[in-house]
Write a structure and sequence with these properties.
The protein is of the alpha/beta class. The protein starts with a helix and ends with a helix.
């Protein structure tokens, strides 16, 4: 596993806030086990079963930071495309979208959806995360399929902030996003 990915995982529990944008997949901290397994199979189609399960266990273990007394505030903005690709099939997606809505309704995380119609107003094509800390400078983390980059250069972190502000402004409101998630979850199970 690349060093930057390890560093990002080590920083997550120390963060006061995590603001994340994902245009293509549900972020790891918000994935159900079934979705995590489906996305791991999709990205590593020839991996042995045990390797896939190891990735899934690690992802589920990372999510424990959301249950800690010092849990960071998590604000995830997801593009509609990330929620329409039927990874793992209709039941998996229905569960995943229901899980996102449940987390939002329980006020554990803030979730917003950027609908296709708003995409032209906030065209950001990469997954990234901004993390703030009480006693350290803010960082950004970008990632692709098999790599990631931790960015601590203040000017670049500021640019990621601007991009995040654009996608958040183009997204549905938090309440409208939860309604959208619940409605779309039902669409996956309706014949």
């Amino acid at each position: 596993m690349p060093t930057t990915s390890r560093t990002r995982r080590a920083l997550e529990p120390l963060a006061r806030s995590i603001c994340e944008y994902s245009p293509l997949v549900v972020p790891g901290l918000l994935q159900t086990e079934t979705y995590a397994r489906a996305i791991t199979h999709a990205s590593l189609p020839l991996a042995p079963r045990e390797e896939v399960e190891e990735y899934v266990r690690a992802r589920m273990a990372r999510q424990r930071i959301l249950d800690a007394d010092t849990a960071p505030v998590l604000w995830a903005v997801l593009h509609e495309a990330a929620l329409r690709v039927p990874l793992g099939g209709p039941d998996c997606m229905s569960d995943q979208l229901g899980h996102l809505a449940s987390l939002g309704r329980a006020r554990r995380v803030m979730v917003q959806v950027v609908p296709y119609a708003a995409s032209a107003h906030a065209f950001v094509q990469e997954t990234f995360r901004l993390m703030t800390f009480g006693d350290a400078p803010e960082v950004a983390y970008t990632e692709g399929s098999h790599t990631g980059q931790l960015i601590d250069e203040p000017v670049l972190v500021g640019r990621f902030h601007s991009s995040y502000d654009l996608v958040r402004a183009a997204a549905l409101s938090p309440m409208a996003s939860l309604d959208w998630l619940e409605s779309t979850a039902k669409d996956y199970t309706t014949p």
